[in-house]
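job 3f2a | input accepted
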Amino acid sequence: SATQTLKAIVKNATDSRVDWTTDNSDVATVNNGVITAGQRAGEATITATSKEDNTKSATCTVVVNAAPSTE
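job 3f2a | predicted structure (71 res):
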């Protein structure tokens, strides 16, 4: 499985940490900003939400394509 690292910066915050979530863990999981492609193709929205102020968040869409056939 492939991985990609994201970075979120919360401006004007005392606590700059964020919580990471995915809306489709079959396609991609996220842990501390590291995205890992799942077991199937599709799309997942990754969200970083400020721990200090949960009204501050950002999202990105991850697209996982099916592996090419080796036949």
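job 3f2a | The longest strand covers residues 42-50.
job 3f2a | closed
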